[in-house]
Amino acid sequence: MDNMKSLMIVSTAISLILTPFIKKFAIYIKAIDIPKDERRIHKKPIPLLGGVAIYLSFLITMFLKEGSLTKQEIGIIIGATVIVIGGLIDDIREIKPWQKLAFQVSAAVILILFEVKISIITNPFLTNRLFIRLEWWISIPITIFWIVGITNAINLIDGVDGLAAGVAFISSITIFIIAMLNGRQEAAILTIILSGAILGFLPYNFNPASIFMGDTGAQLLGFLLATISLKGAIKSATAFAIAVPILAFGIPIYDTLFAMIRRKINGKPIMQADRGHLHHRLLDMGLNQKQVVIIMYLISAVLGGISIIAMQMSTQRSYFLLTFVILVIVLLAWKCGFFKHRE
Asked: Which residues are listed as membrane-spanning (predicted)?
C-alpha cells in the first residue's frame, strides 16, 4: 500500500506542476473554448488541453513504477495515446462526430489486439456454471461498445467546471477499492495513478475554472476508466460482471442513456446537443456551479458505494440490486421530466 501512496503522490505532483504550462501552451496555439451559444455556462474564453497534463502525468508515472510494463499495459498506453491524438485535433480545429468515433474504435481495437477485452461474463441463472466464456465474435463487439460508450459518457457530462474530472476521480477510486478487494494488483495500480493525475488537475478545473480538459481529457478519462474496469471489476471472480462497473460509472451512463432516449422520443437527432442533462437542470433550478458539482459528486459517491456492496454479493443478488437501482433512477428521471426535450 505504501507503494500505492507513492504512485498517487507522484502522479498528483506531476499533474499539478504540468497543468499551468499546458495552459500557457493552449493559449499560445489558440486552443481556447470560446462561448458561442446558450448551452455554454462559462461567459469568457477558457483554454483547453488540460487533458494533456492528465495524460502526461499518467504516462510518466506508469514508466516510473516498479517493474517493466506488461503487454496489456503497453496496449492501454498506445490506446490512450490514440484517444489523446484524436482529442487534441478536436480541441484545436474540431472534427466531425464520425471522425471522433473512428479514433475511439481504433483505440478499442488496439486494446483487443493487446488482449484487453471482455472474454468471460458471470451467469446469474445456473449455479453449476458460474461463468460463460464468450466467443470472439461476441467478445470483440461487446468490448468495443463498452469502451466507446464509457468514453463518450464521460465526455457528455463535461459541461460544468470540475464535474467530469471529479466524477471520474470518484469512479477511479471506486474501481481502485474494488480491485484491491479482489486482489487485482495491476488494476489497482492503474487506477491509483489515474486518480492522482486527476487530483492534480482538479484545483485548476474546479469553479471558477482556469483551464478545461477539453475532449482530450474527457475522452481520455472515459477510455482509461472503461479499460481499467475490464481488468479490475469485470474480470473479477467475485463480482457481478456488469453491475459493478455500471453502478461505479452511474451518472455518466444514466445521463447519456436518458439523453439518447429523450432525443429519440422527441424526434431529435441522437447526437444533437440540448440542455436536458442533469447539470443543466440543476442549474436551471437556481443552483450555482459549485452546488451542482457537489450534488453530482455525492450521487456518484453513493452509486460507487453501492457498486462496492454489489461486488461482495452473490451474482443473483447483484442482478437484483442493479435492477432495483436502475428502476429507481428511471422512475425519478421520469418524474423530474428528464425525457422531455429542452433546447
From this structure: 6-26, 46-64, 70-89, 101-121, 136-156, 163-181, 187-206, 218-234, 240-261, 292-313, 319-338
